[in-house]
Amino acid sequence: MSVDFYVAMPAANWPTASAVQRCLSERAHPVHVKRFPTLKGGGVVNDGALAVIDGKEVYLEGELAPASAISADVRSINERLMAASAPERIGANDVIVSFRTRSPTEIRAASYVISALIVCFNGLGFEPQGNTHGRASFARAIIESAEALKDL
């Protein structure tokens, strides 16, 4: 089982690990971010996030890229958003982070991190398997799903 999560946001909003942790802590989310990908110019960063949840260290395999560096992927996601009647699209000045998760623990950790990126940094979340997307309501839904996975 694997689940992929994406968040697009203005490049100027890309946060530091400490900013993500502050957002998580302010919301009492049970995740501690130990390492978070850093945006590096116009290139693709093939690194994810290292976090601790429920006393377990998890690595969230990821990729961070400016929209301009992954135009085929952006086109595909925008087509899915359009097909789902979403009013928003990923723009040329956005960055996209993706996290691939393979276990309930990774899904939980990623859900909290994705929620933080949406709520605190003006992100647009997207989960292609369920073809779900959005902002605050999407963030709430993935947090509810994460809570349901707590003891798995």
Explained architecture:
The chain is α+β, with helices and mostly antiparallel strands and 152 residues long. The protein has one domain (3-148). 36% of the residues lie in helices and 29% in strands. The chain has four helices and seven strands; from the N terminus they run E-H-E-E-E-H-E-H-E-E-H. The protein has helices at 17-26, 71-83, 104-121, 136-148; strands at residues 3-10, 31-35, 49-53, 56-66, 94-101, 124-127, 132-134. It has a seven-stranded antiparallel beta sheet with strand order 2-3-4-5-1-6-7. Helix 3 (104-121) packs antiparallel against helix 4. The two termini are 13 Å apart. The mean pLDDT is 94.
Summarize the structure.
The protein is an alpha+beta fold.
Q: What attributes characterize this protein structure?
A:
152 residues, alpha+beta, 4 helices, 36% helix
Give the terminus-to-terminus CA distance.
Answer: 13 Å
Radius of gyration: 14 Å
Number of domains: 1
Number of helical segments?
A: 4
Mean pLDDT: 94
Instruction: Report the portion of residues in β strands.
Output: 25-35%
Biggest β-sheet description: 7 strands, antiparallel
Major beta sheet, strand line-up: 2-3-4-5-1-6-7
Principal-axis shape equals globular
**What string gives the helices and strands in order?**
EHEEEHEHEEH
